Amino acid sequence: MNRRPGRRLGAWCAGLLLAGTGVVAGCRVADTDGVTPVPQLLAFLPWLLVPTGFALLCALLARWWPGLVCGAVVLGVLAWYLQPYDGPADPAGPPLATLRVLTSNVEFGRGTPALVPWLRDRRPDVVFVEECEFTCQATLEADFATAYPYRRAVRAAGSHGSLILSRFPLTPTAGVPGTMGMPGAIADVRGHAVRLQLAHPMPPLPGQVGLWHRELGRLRAVAAAAPRTPTILAGDFNATQDHAAFRRILDTGLTDAARLAGHDRAASWPARTASVVGTQIDHVLLSPDFSATGARFLRVAGSDHRALVVDLALHQRG
After folding, report:
1. pTM for the complete prediction?
2. I need a labelling partner for 195 at 20 to 30 A (CA). Which of 6, 112, 231, 314 fits?
3. What does the CA dihedral 118, 305, 253, 210 come to, rounded to 10 degrees?
């Protein structure tokens, strides 16, 4: 008799936890981002294994067998989706050129002083900088006037400013309309045209999930617009491979460079806890013309994002 209240409490705890994690897992299975708070929780899908495991323990201690079965199913679904989202195979054609790409969200420009030495050390060929406001742009353009003579910018304050720096000649494109700047260009990479598009859609904040979806949809439209042209789509997507809207972009034929390099679950945000708890919302997406030979996430002091640098090879299409 004395154990029954404890068992009821354990069953209630298990039920509440499984109700939450089960809804998120169900949305992942249904290929939808749902409504708040599902999109926010989907960003941390691997970490939902923790409350689901605790729910299983509660169900076991409470001898609540239906809850135990339900918990095992949710746990299995979450574990299944830990694997990388499928992408195309490596290109079969011979390599035409190699290049290094870096993307960094400098958080309202605060990370600019720390980004400068990384650019000098890593010497990327193309740099995408999000939340690069007026001071950030002035600093990078002055310090790297010789190293990066070509650039495309959306000149704006706060999080709205963005910048592309390039060693290769650039031809401007229309970019992507959005709340925050998303410039684009065509780069002449040793005689080969490569589309460059900076990505920085709005985050899925409560009340703004629809806007987030629309801006990711515009990025998808750009990705699908020229399937025969080598394309690099890079930046802070405010989305992970567990978001349906992000997978729609990948479904156009793009692949995540970090996944190709074996870092598909390495966290880029929040930077302070990324080595322990975090999620990967900063990406470099590639058309099938590219292979990735390396990827590394870099701590940029002053920013809540880690930068991502990837080594790429552009291949001839078969």
Report:
1. 0.95
2. 112
3. -150
